[in-house]
Here is the input.
Amino acid sequence: MITTEKANQLHKKVNTFILSCVGEDGYPLTKAVVPGKHRNSLNELYFCTNTSSNFVAAINSNPKATVYFYNRKFIVWKGCQLIGHMEVVKDMAVKERFWQEKFKAAYEQKSFIDPDFCVLKFTPTAGRYYANFTPQDFTL
Here is the structure.
């Protein structure tokens, strides 16, 4: 589907993603994150954060989440919102794959084995792509 292809191209270009979930108090919880260093397709998105974050606690309670990313150049605005489920990755091989040297400053053990280093996996089920003043819904 053309819309899915456009959304996939956009996700590979942008550098900031907005994650949202249902907070433990029932209100939306939102945070901006940089994408994981491997971005293959929209079918699975990975993000790195801290295990101790409020966001991870909320995901452990309720895996429903959204991911939003956009690119604004001149007067053209392109954006995509994905809905789906987020999970905390336990597989150490996956955590090692997404570890980056620049993370060392943020973690005491300076490695992917640090218990506060967390990788989140997002599996979308549907999305809405927006470009040229036109929204297009799609499923994955």
Summary: The mean pLDDT is 92. Strands lie at 17-22, 28-33, 45-50, 64-73, 76-88, 117-131, 134-139. The first helix runs from residue 2 to 13.
